């Protein structure tokens, strides 16, 4: 019983309280008064997911038939009845060379997801074989002061996911290190607030593409003559600068709205500036600061795709663009896989921030 209560607290703490409710239903521990809430919070979302998949299937089938009919009609007009009948037979056979290239069905997306996982396993095995094959040679090269030979094959889909996560967390950390201290100073000083207001209002709405170009101008000059791959550096700095504004504004608002009685108590206790900030100002401002951090992380994840595409950084953004340009029969399905992966990771990042907020803050926030 105690373990069950602990599990319930942990899942609720992480904004995943519906998991405990779901467990209670099958163990017979669900109270009658909670049953309606269970239906609303768990069963209704499941039904809506199934409805979404069903509508998606019907929509993709309709688009498939529309494009197939168009191609057959065009073949009939341009090449005659025999060509049109041959194309109809080819489409019916499932031959990939003549299939309509439109919105993929849920089944096709699932098959592409499995295909990407198989590719990842093959590439991982290839990497492991390469490392084993070059281990002795690399030891000799390192002993001579030379750079080791590295694997230069294409990254797998999973590798690109981890590259994107590295980029977004580096950008998020940069945004945090810039926005939180600056927001504290702005919030504490009306003079600084007036000084920086024009800067915030002008640069906050700037497009991610423009931030990328600005960072590119600076970084390529600083690394001129260097053989280092600058795509990661350009990407995470662009992500950080583009996404930091919500944290900056919310931190300044949180600090400036701290109850004046708390500040007066700090003065009576003769706390120093740093003690006042860390013992009074920050604890009182945490809810607004974390709201800004959650927005910053979600914005960072959204703009990352466009920035990786521009920077040619081997992450999800570049994966989506390459599949779009590839135009293969399964490219559309792989793009949809990437879309779902991006959305699911975005959701998990939001849950992560909610968990950290509930961990460090006195005010506990429920998931939306």
Polypeptide structure, described:
The chain is mainly alpha-helical and 368 residues long. The chain folds into two domains: 2-93, no CATH class; 154-360, MetI-like (MetI-like fold, Orthogonal Bundle), CATH 1.10.3720. Helix content is 80%, strand content 0%. The protein has 14 helices and no strands. It has helices at 2-13, 18-27, 32-79, 81-93, 106-143, 157-188, 190-203, 208-222, 231-243, 245-256, 260-268, 273-311, 316-326, 331-360. Helix 6 (157-188) runs parallel beside helix 10 (245-256). The longest helix is centred in the first third of the chain and has 48 residues, at 32-79. It is globular and about 95 Å long.
Largest sheet: none
Q: In percent, how helical is the residue content?
A: over 70%
Q: What is the count of β-strands?
A: 0
CATH topology of the largest domain: MetI-like fold
Low-confidence stretches: 1-5
Shape: globular
Structural class: mainly alpha
Counted by DSSP, the helix tally is: 14
Q: In percent, how much strand structure appears in the residues?
A: under 5%
- The H-and-E topology, N to C, reads as HHHHHHHHHHHHHH
Top-tier CATH class of the largest domain: Mainly Alpha
What count of domains describes the coordinates?
Answer: 2
């Amino acid at each position: 019983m105690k373990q069950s209560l602990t599990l319930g607290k942990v899942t609720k703490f992480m904004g995943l309280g519906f998991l405990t409710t779901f467990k209670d239903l099958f163990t017979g521990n669900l109270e009658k008064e909670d049953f309606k809430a269970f239906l609303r919070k768990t069963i209704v979302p499941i039904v809506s997911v199934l409805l979404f998949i069903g509508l998606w299937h019907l929509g993709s089938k309709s688009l498939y038939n529309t494009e197939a009919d168009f191609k057959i009609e065009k073949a009939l007009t341009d090449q005659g009845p025999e060509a049109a009948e041959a194309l109809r037979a080819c489409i019916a056979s499932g031959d990939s060379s003549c299939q309509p290239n439109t919105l993929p069905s849920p089944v096709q997306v699932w098959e592409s997801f499995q295909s990407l996982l198989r590719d990842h396993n093959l590439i991982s095995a290839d990497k492991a074989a390469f490392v084993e094959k070059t281990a002795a040679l690399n030891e000799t090269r390192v002993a001579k002061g030379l750079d080791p030979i590295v694997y230069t094959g294409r990254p797998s889909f999973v590798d690109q996911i981890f590259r994107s996560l590295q980029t977004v967390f580096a950008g998020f950390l940069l945004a945090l290190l810039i926005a939180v201290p600056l927001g504290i100073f702005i919030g504490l000083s009306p003079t600084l607030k007036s000084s920086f207001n024009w800067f915030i209002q002008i640069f906050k709405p700037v497009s991610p593409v423009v931030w990328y170009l600005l960072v590119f101008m600076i970084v390529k000059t600083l690394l001129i003559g260097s053989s280092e791959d600058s795509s990661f550096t350009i990407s995470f700095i662009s992500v950080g600068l583009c996404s930091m504004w919500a944290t900056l504004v919310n931190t300044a608002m949180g600090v400036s709205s701290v109850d004046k009685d708390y500040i007066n108590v700090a003065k009576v206790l003769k706390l120093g500036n740093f003690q006042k900030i860390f013992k009074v100002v920050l604890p009182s401002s945490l809810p607004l600061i974390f709201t800004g951090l959650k927005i910053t992380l979600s914005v960072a994840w959204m703009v990352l795709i466009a920035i990786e595409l521009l920077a040619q950084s081997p992450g999800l953004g570049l994966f989506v663009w390459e599949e779009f340009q590839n135009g293969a029969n399964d490219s559309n399905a792989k793009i949809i896989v990437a879309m779902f992966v991006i959305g699911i990771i975005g959701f998990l990042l939001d849950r992560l921030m909610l968990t950290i907020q509930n961990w460090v803050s006195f005010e506990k926030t429920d998931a939306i």
